[in-house]
Amino acid sequence: MRSPFLLLLTATGLALAVPVELLENGDFESGVLSPWTTNSWTISTTEPHWGAYCAFVEGNYWIRQDFTPVDVSKVVSVTFWHRQPEVALFGIEFYYGQSDYDFDIIHAQGPDWSEYDATYLLRPAGNLEAVRIWGYSGGGPDPDYNYLDDVSIMYDEDLSLDQATFGTIKALFAAD
Length: 176
Ligand SMILES: [Ca+2]
What we know:
Structural class: mainly beta
Number of domains: 1
Radius of gyration: 18 Å
Bound molecules: calcium ion
Largest sheet: 6 strands, antiparallel
CATH superfamily: Galactose-binding domain-like
Distance between the termini: 22 Å
Number of strands: 11
CATH topology: Jelly Rolls
Shape: globular
Order of helices and strands: HEEEEEEEEEEEH
């Protein structure tokens, strides 16, 4: 679906800004965790959201990916798929420096795979350099299982956050 639209934009001679994926192996389809780092998560083949692999942990442990720092105002989306059978909560952290980070709690949406959009948790300014996602412990009598798949951070060096909305598309059509 993407190609015809991009070709159309190219044909009109407009500047072409294509968001790029900042994370590597966000779908875990390499079959190993690298370049993710962790203190307990493992690769799992149990009902991944997509493909053959996802990441899994039991308990309150983290999985993290570092990348070359980018202007956070040009990050257009942070999304991931998460499955937590016990439907409790989990944590997410965004790093803007080695020890400069924000921690937020996200409540699980349901026992099955759910897509989460964490874009709203980003700061308006700064250099984003890592994301870290936590499991949890407690919350009920069942095992504290967490599954993670299809983690994505999209970055567009040509667009600011407010421009990188559907308003940009509308403006393009209005220009005709
Ligand atoms: Ca996968």
